[in-house]
Amino acid sequence: MEKKAIMIRKSASFMVGAIQTNLEKAGYKILPVDATVAAVNEKQAEADILLLCLGDFISGTSNFLVYLRDLCAEEEKLLVLLGTPEELEAAEKTIPSSLIAARFARPLDIKRLVDEMDDLVQVNDENSRKKTILLVDDDNTFLKTIKGWLSAQYRVTIVTSGAQALMYIADNKPDLILLDYEMPVTSGPQVLEMIRSETAVGAIPVIFLTGKGDRESVMKVLALKPDGYFLKSTDKETLLKSLEEFFEKRKYDQLHHAQK
User: Fold this and answer.
1) Is the pTM of this model over 0.70?
2) Residue 111: CB partners within 8 Å, gap ≥ 6?
3) Which of 88, 121, 202, 258 has the smallest number of CB atoms closer than 10 Å to its CB?
4) Could you give the angle at the alpha carbon of 259 between the alpha carbons of 54 and 79, nearest 5°?
5) Angle 209-213-219 (CA atoms, 0-180°, nearest 5)?
6) CB contact at 8 A, 91 and 58
């Protein structure tokens, strides 16, 4: 897990130097750059975390903040803001909270800064690898079709029964389980109940696969409180887009949970 961050500042003040020193002591490689579009653009590919040290200069840098906003949205950078409450408020008029991974008001608690930076690095590292999906269904033809659709973007494991699914997660922790709602012997709801009852695997997200799209059937599925459901008739493009949105939302939730 590489600990690296780009530190954006207007000048090398005592406070900025102290922050850099403490982060370097904690194992971070800090890349200091000036608060200009050209300077950040030159270095932005070298790290996923942008640490912006705000100052009274912030009121006159709307174009720079727009650039950072767009960079974080397009390149999925993690933006960390440091400044006075007034400076943070000014920056957040341009950069929405959904794009800010963490914010720290001065005077800074350096230990908290380092701890939360570590949390962000860990979450980012987990989300940057290829996601793993466990696909559970008793229909081999359906399994092979869906695996073929997903394999270019995800690492997919297929099993044909609830019992096999439970055996698999005893030794592995997938990022997502796509679980057939209606299976013989051990049904999808029974598998979900057993997963949720086990502390070690209870947090693994589970999305049901169902062949019934009528309101009564859907409400019955949702009453079990899975992390969602897909109709088996869903086409490839819709399924891939829905999974991408699911993982993006999960990443957002994890990042914002990490800073609490």
Assistant:
1) no
2) none
3) 202
4) 40
5) 85
6) yes
Residue 132, both tokens: 């793993």
DSSP output for 199-235? TTTTTS-EEEEES--SHHHHHHHHTT--S-EEETT--
- Reply yes or no on whether the pLDDT at 258 is more than 70: no
* Residue 70: how many other CB atoms lie within 10 Å: 12
Enumerate domains of the chain plus CATH numbers.
Answer: 4-128 (3.40.50.2300), 132-256 (3.40.50.2300)
Element (H, E) at 82: strand 78-83
What is the structure's pLDDT at 232? Answer: 92
How crowded is residue 75: how many other Cβ atoms within 10 Å of its Cβ? 11
> What is the C-alpha to C-alpha distance for residues 65 and 86, in angstroms, rounded to an integer?
15
Containing 107, the helix (H) or strand (E) segment is none
Q: What is the DSSP string of 120-178?
A: HHHHHHHHHSPPEEEEE-S-HHHHHHHHHHHTTTSEEEEESSHHHHHHHHHH---SEEE
Helix axis angle for 236-258 and 140-150, nearest 10°, is: 60
Residue 1 is predicted with a pLDDT of: 62
Query: Are the CB atoms for 52 and 80 separated by under 8 Å?
Result: yes
Look at residue 62 in the predicted model and tell me its pLDDT: 78
pLDDT of the residue at 27: 94
